[in-house]
Amino acid sequence: MPGESRSRQGALAEFVDGLQASGRYCFDRQEAMAALGSSGPVLKKAVMRLAAKGRLIAPKRGFYVIVPIEYRSAGAPPPTWFIDDLMRKLGRAYYVGLLSAAGLHGAAHQQAQEFQIMTDIPVRPVLAGRARIRFLTKRCHQQTPTLEMKTPTGRILVSTPEATAVDLLRYAAAAGGLSNVATVLAELAERLDASLLAKAAADGAEIVFAQRLGYLLDQIGEGKRAAALAALIAERKPRSVALRPGRSTRGGPVDRRWGVIVNERIEVDL
To answer: Would you place residue 93 in the very low, low, confident or very high pLDDT band (cuts 50, 70, 90)?
Structure first.
């Protein structure tokens, strides 16, 4: 019935307004159905009507994000407002990583075109308004040092500055390449604790990322912050590795401190 449909739409709008008034900006299908006494198909129609008005988005099926008026033109609030709830809905451990984590730690010069999340299994990218959320898979992600950051709606897990630095080398392609990584490190450097940096690198599965990270820190004039990393490399005595994997190392000079064969020129953009 048309009248009943309008009534359900109004009830959903009131439910959404009530959540927003209490500081919540997301909910799932089961919660809404229980609160409104609606069936799935009826709720779906009401959601579609509010979505058409720009009041709601659904980045994943059955998970809805409220769009406050100040973010109506962007199509959604920032991912930091709802990513923790979304990952709980998916039942996945996570942390905000790479360029997104670096930006949250103050290295915002090279803003990512996507919001980058680390998790343990492949998850398809999602769109939330103009924001693209990309999920990168990391087998040992639960060993990565993280910290909690407050957001306007709760909290999120973010890799520590030191773990972020190591991850930037582990996933250099997703971070825009080595020169972009060096640029980000130049802004992130003041947040890096030398001993914690070496610990984050030592806990990783492969020492090659510590070698490349140390080399880049030298290149941006932060060799002192890399002293503990250098001690780790000297202790492990790893074989020399290419600075840029997958590219020929023929004729490339070897940086003896780090055991890195320099096969790419690093240009920092600051």
So the answer is: very high
| Of residues 112 and 121, more confidently modeled | 121
Output the average pLDDT for the chain.
91
**Residue 60 φ/ψ, nearest 5 degrees:** -135, 150
Neighbouring CB atoms inside 10 A of 182's CB total 21
CA distances from 8 to 3, 31, 58, 87 (A): 9, 15, 18, 28
Say what percent of the chain tops pLDDT 70.
94
Structure tokens at 56: 């709601």
Domain count, the chain: 2
Domain interval for residue 202: 79-261
For the stretch 155-194, pLDDT in tens is 999 999 999 999 999 999 999 999 999 999 999 999 999 9
Decide: 8 and 45 in contact? Cβ < 8 Å.
yes
Same domain, 133 and 208: yes
Boundary (domain end) residue, out of 53, 71, 89: 71
Question: Side-chain half-sphere of 115: how many Cα atoms within 13 Å?
Answer: 22
